[in-house]
Amino acid sequence: MRVLGIDCGSERTGFGVVESDGRRHQLVISGVIRTSPKDPFAHRIGIIGRRLRDILTEHQPEEAAVEEVFHAANTKTAIKLAHVRGAVFFVLGETGMHVGEYSALTVKSNVVGYGRAEKQQVQMMLRSMLGQDTVFESEDASDALAVAICHATHRSTELRIAGSSMGAVR
Amino acid sequence: MRVLGIDCGSERTGFGVVESDGRRHQLVISGVIRTSPKDPFAHRIGIIGRRLRDILTEHQPEEAAVEEVFHAANTKTAIKLAHVRGAVFFVLGETGMHVGEYSALTVKSNVVGYGRAEKQQVQMMLRSMLGQDTVFESEDASDALAVAICHATHRSTELRIAGSSMGAVR
Q1: What residues make up the domain containing A15?
Q2: Given CB 3.0 to 4.6 Å as the disulfide criterion, which of B11, B69, B82, B103 pairs with A82?
């Protein structure tokens, strides 16, 4: 199964696509969509949504996963982030694909085995999964890949329980 | 100038289109996009965005205006609302149209002449502008029309200052 993970942000939105059977994962692409704080906010939302649409067209993920909003964060930041997430959900929704949502805690627990892991620990674990030579454009990109892998393992279990099989990277 | 006003909400998003020269306003259409709290939130965002796109195609507004988020509101509500606004901005942004943002205070000051006006006072004033037989599907619809009219008057002044003229309802 090919999964797109997204780590939303108004300045930097990380994305990562992996091909996975739920246990073994292959990196397809990862990167960061950057927007300038100097541009009008609505314009920046447009850039993020359109770039995301390009990624969907180019890399054809079957499912997607997004990190949940951290409500305890600064309200103004959370509200900005929610605008970006709204546009991201809309663009993902247009494809009709299944979209998962996971808290940062769940993602880290799943990938590192420890919910309060540092970003560097996440990157270290991702390298052991995807290859030691994996380069992350930034922590936003590695966080997005972690969300994608978290979703792939969750869905793999769900689908196995449902008696389905995932046709990838066997 | 044909202006679309939008009053975002996760359960009810009001919309209203007016044809205006900045002083006289004609109602084109108004209504409410409703989504069910029982549906997944991402799905509801999709419904709102797609319905908005239909309204744009059908009624061809030249500009749009959206009410600003009221930051002091309940954080959870504000974050939900921000998701809807993100999708709305994305869909409006795809058209390349000018999008204005106004606080509820500015809208009421502009339409009623009093920033703390009640919703009924807004409706009363809208009827005196758009015709006494105007029916509002709900307060979300009338609020959206008020935002549209607020934008039309603002832009009319702006464009007059810039030496342009607005070719409508003379």
Answers
A1: 2-169
A2: B82
What ipTM does the predicted assembly reach? 0.88
CA–CA gap between residue A114 and residue A125 (Å, rounded):
11
Phi and psi at residue A23, to the nearest 5°:
-120, -45
Q: How many domains does chain A have?
A: 1
- B76-125, pLDDT tens digit by residue? 888 999 999 999 999 999 999 999 999 999 999 999 999 999 999 999 99
Short-list B51, B45, B53, CA closest to B9: B45
**Tally of residues, chain B:** 170
Q: Quick check: A5 and A64 in contact, CB under 8 A?
A: yes
Please give the Cα distance from A74 to A70 (Å, whole number).
9
Residues A14-70: tens digit of each pLDDT: 999 999 999 999 999 999 999 999 998 888 999 999 999 999 999 999 999 999 877
Q: Which residues of A are catalytic?
A: 7, 67, 140
Q: Which of A69, A90, A98 to mutate to test the interface with B (most CBs of B within 10 A)?
A: A90
For A71, which of B79, B82, B87 is closest by C-beta distance? B79
CATH at residue B161? 3.30.420.10
Going across the sheet that includes B98-102, the strands are: B25-34, B12-20, B2-7, B63-67, B98-102
**Which tokens hold the place of A104?**
């940062």
User: What residues of B are annotated to the active site?
Assistant: 7, 67, 140
Q: Do A46 and B94 touch (CB under 8 A)?
A: yes
- Global pTM value: 0.90
Interface contact B91-A90, CB threshold 8 A: yes
A92 and chain B: CB distance < 8 Å anywhere? yes
CA end-to-end distance (rounded Å), chain A? 11
Q: Nearest Cα to A16, choosing from A59, A53, A49?
A: A59
Pick from B66, B83, B94 the residue to mutate for testing the A interface (most A CBs within 10 Å): B83
State what percent of residues in chain A have pLDDT above 90.
79
**CB-closest option in B75, B78, B89 to A42:** B89
